[in-house]
Automatic annotation (TrEMBL):
SUPFAM superfamilies: Glycerol-3-phosphate (1)-acyltransferase. Pathway: Lipid metabolism. InterPro entries: Plipid/glycerol_acylTrfase (IPR002123). The keyword Transferase applies. It comes from the Bacteria. It comes from Aquirufa rosea. GO terms for molecular function: 1-acylglycerol-3-phosphate O-acyltransferase activity. Residues 31-143 form the Phospholipid/glycerol acyltransferase domain. This is Acyltransferase. The lineage of its organism: Bacteria, Pseudomonadati, Bacteroidota, Cytophagia, Cytophagales.
Length: 187
């Protein structure tokens, strides 16, 4: 898996982006959630962040990205295909991957799409609870071209309570004005 890349560093910096925060190196496992998922540019920005962090962080992506001519590229970059069809124990399968590795970090966009959504997909939360790992919240501030990396958040197992903490974090990042944030903070 390609982690450190001068090309990704250059893209990130040439596009005028900066980072604020870090992922503690003493945490062997985490699930990294990135919001907003607004554009295809999220992906190369994320690769730039990973490269600058110089940290092995995989990513979960819909299985369709891993098919066809460019499928090998996504695998080479550290991707894991996810089959989002019904009747699958996807959370359990991902928890097994975390449990079978001593060191494993992976990122995903919990919105599940680039469109505005009313709620986040909750798989990331159940994975964190079942694998007993922290959630690292990463916000893409497109207004100021700043990637915000929050300190690890350890979920309590009470999603109704924890979703407000997650929404409050992302609500504080300029440009992240999503319907799900308003819904979570209103309840």
């Amino acid at each position: 898996m390609l982690i450190k890349s001068a090309l990704f560093d250059l893209f990130f910096k040439t596009m005028g982006w900066e980072m604020k925060g870090d992922i503690p190196r003493d945490i062997p496992k985490s699930i990294v959630i990135v919001c907003p998922h607004a554009t295809w540019v999220d992906f190369p920005i994320g690769l730039g962040v990973r490269s600058l962090l110089n940290m092995k962080i995989h990513f979960w992506g819909k299985k369709e990205l891993f098919q066809g001519v460019f499928g090998w590229v996504f695998r080479w970059l550290g991707g894991y295909p996810v089959d989002r069809s019904k009747n699958q124990n996807l959370v359990g399968a991902i928890v097994d991957i975390y449990n079978s590795n001593e060191y494993f970090h992976a990122a995903l966009a919990p919105e599940g799409t680039r469109k505005d959504v009313q709620e986040l997909k909750t798989g990331f939360y159940h994975i964190a609870v079942q694998a007993n790992i922290p959630i690292i919240m990463v916000g893409f501030d497109y207004v100021n071209k700043l990637v915000h990396i929050n300190s690890p958040f350890y979920p309590t197992g009470d999603f109704e309570s924890d979703k407000k903490v997650i929404a409050q974090y992302f609500a504080g990042i300029p440009g992240v004005q999503k319907s799900w944030i308003k819904n979570y903070l209103a309840n």
